[in-house]
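Supplementary Data S3. Sequence and structure tokens for construct A.
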Amino acid sequence: MWYAVRIVRAELISIGTELASGLALDTNSAWLAGELARLGVEVTRHVTVTDDRPAIAAELDRAAGSAGIVLVTGGLGPTDDDVTREALADAMGVPLRTDQASLEQVRAFFVRLGRRFAESNTRQARFPEGAAPIENPWGTAPGCRARLGEATVYCLPGVPREMKEMFRQAVAPDLRTLARGAVIVTRTLRCFGAGESTIGDQIADLMAAGRPVTVGITAAEGLISIRLITEARDETTAETLLAQDEADLRRRLGVLIYGTEDQTLASVVGDLLRQGQHTVATAESCTGGLLAKHLTDVPGSSAYLLGGLVTYSNRGKSDLLGVDPLLIERHGAVSEEVARQMAAGCRERTGADFVLSTTGIAGPGGGTPEKPVGLVYIALARDGGAEVKRYLLGSQLPRSSIRERTCATALNMLRLRLQ
């Protein structure tokens, strides 16, 4: 749980012709909006602008007239189409000046990497007169902080990793010092096992407008997030209001809630495995190793994950997992019987306490009326046998979504068993 205070409105400007044309996805704005919300900053607009100097300058001028904070990402590279610095100078009505300290930092970056410093990189150390540089230890493009009218403008690189680190180190502390007003407390609950509409119906009264705690729902690949936000004159009052609604949600939703904040199904399962000193392995067909990837995305997963087998072909299922070829011929690779033998065979070979197996039709082709795209069987083998569940995830879903939802469903099966 974190605390922040509401301050001013902010606008986000993403620079790049590739973003405006749809050739690349703007993930920076979504990330920044989430971080600003955590600081109590209200984001009122996201704008994408091509690499056009007059257009960027005009957008900066407009944004500075309507928001107290303007965050710009992109256009700080060394090439001719990187014109954010020039556009900001135009909007401010000042010239560009070279900052020697920033220039030395850029040179030092190339030395550390053993790369040649190109003269074009010199322009990355030029800033509008009066602007303060923001150091970038993670790349070659320093950012800057400047005043434009009544607004504070922050320009950060478009490279996500660099942008995120610079925001955390230089921008977020600034925004905290500007804090004014009421204390805000937030909490996000993560759910799986029921659809957005089902959960929405169960908590509809808590989502009504005008309540002291604002409750909202978002969904992505079957994972449901419930965000609670409350505001009060002091931390104790705000925390008490939120705790009451959180307790109510937990009573209503029970095991549908698997975690909070940034917890994932894989991290929660990992914690449960570690606490019980259990091990796990995977036997995958339709997910092709994605389930094992989710498990290994969690730091320290080597403490409980013994390994995984990707047995995509029928022969692989037989040779590597000991699935009876006659069983595959009789029931098909996508069947309860095969899923069960996959899990049992993997457990026998790895010695894991638990094994998850997946077999299904991820599409877009390969479905039949009897076995449509989106049909998945998931088995969970453990001491005493294996349980198998059949799921129809939806033939309308793309292949990637079917695979992701299969992994989430498998992890949730194991979570519920471990709990």
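Construct B, processed identically:
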Amino acid sequence: MFKLSGKTALVTGSSQGIGFALAKTLTEYGAKVFVHGSNKEKCENAAKEINNSVAVVSDLGNNTAAEEIYRLTGDVDILILNASVQFRTPWNEIGDEEFDKQIQVNLKSSLKLMQKYFPKMKENKFGRIITIGSVQQYKPHKDMAIYAASKCSQMSLVKNIAKQVAPFGITVNNISPGVIATPRNEKALSDINYSRLVIAGIPMGYAGKAEDISGAALLLCGDAGRYITGTDIIIDGGMSL
């Protein structure tokens, strides 16, 4: 039920952190994976560490990125939209550049990539699309208002599209990680006082690892998750409770 032999996947933002863990897990269960990132060196190095993977370099901040990535990968069976950007800025100081960048990468690129890969999934009567959201859909950080809003909007997109593509054997779901110890969060969590404050808000008492997200993704990608669509799986140690 969890085997992915013969399947091809694209995981955006998979040169490190959660995306890297997801890509690695998919290959361990038989899939060929396109490892994506905007930094050529990091992306290629990540692909070297993951068996049966190919590096794909493109910046989702560019409006043409979906077309560029599709040309490099061709059709895939599994699309995991993990890449995102976030800025820590008080709400009343957010400027156009930060707003536009987060909406472009976190929301618009998700739609455009779904649009590019949908036709073949429809033809094959099989497709798995997963967006990676955030606990901020439920508990937004005071200095990441647009990041949180973009993830809420992405979840709305998931619900909307999931209903429309379900008749074609395609599932669309979201996974919302909580505080995960990744390179993105390394600087913030290295502040002892800040880290204590954050961990105090997690009932399980610790930050998760990138690998903690992989099990849910594996479930949703294989036959075991074929009847799950339009939903959100929260993996946050209880932070959103």
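The two ends are 31 Å apart (CA to CA). The chain has one domain: 8-233.
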